[in-house]
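Chapter review. Work through the record for Recombination protein RecR before attempting the end-of-chapter questions.
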Amino acid sequence: MKIARAIRDLVESFEKLPGIGPKTAQRMTFYLLHVPQKDLESFSKSLINLKKNTKICSLCFNISETDPCPICSDPSRDKGKICLLEQPLDILAIEKGCFYKGVYHVLGGVIDPLNNIGPEELHIYDLLPRLKSGKINELIIATNPTIEGEATAMYILNLVKKYKDLKISRIGRGLPTGAALEYADELTLSKSFEGRREY
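Structure tokens for Recombination protein RecR:
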């Protein structure tokens, strides 16, 4: 059966999204055919503005409407404590719990040689000037407990262990191995922070 080009194009666009297979892409496309035009236009405007109205924080590499982001510019945050994360989405998971009052540093991924992602493709080296300032007293490494996350954590540990006055900790094992931070509940994340250990 020949499918209208507009439908085929949208199905193909949805298939490019993570976790969306051909059947789900088709269901989403045909669902949108029944949505009122006004809602579709609002949806498309949100997509168009997604990159136009967001900035990457020059300090922590979080995604925000401002640079620096609200967390980095908040005077009540503990600027001596940096939590190192893989993605900005991980910040949302931690902030939901309201238990961490420090600042962040987002790597933008993990070292993954199979996908040609080395340390140079991440924001690893952007962390070093923050540590050299002498204002940071603890670095909490909170990469996901995956093989790549652990390898990235070890790489960073080797880079930063020369800072003798810096306490380096790793979030505890409240998270199951292979799980991602974005799917953890607040209690599990809270316990992971409480159970962090010093490297």
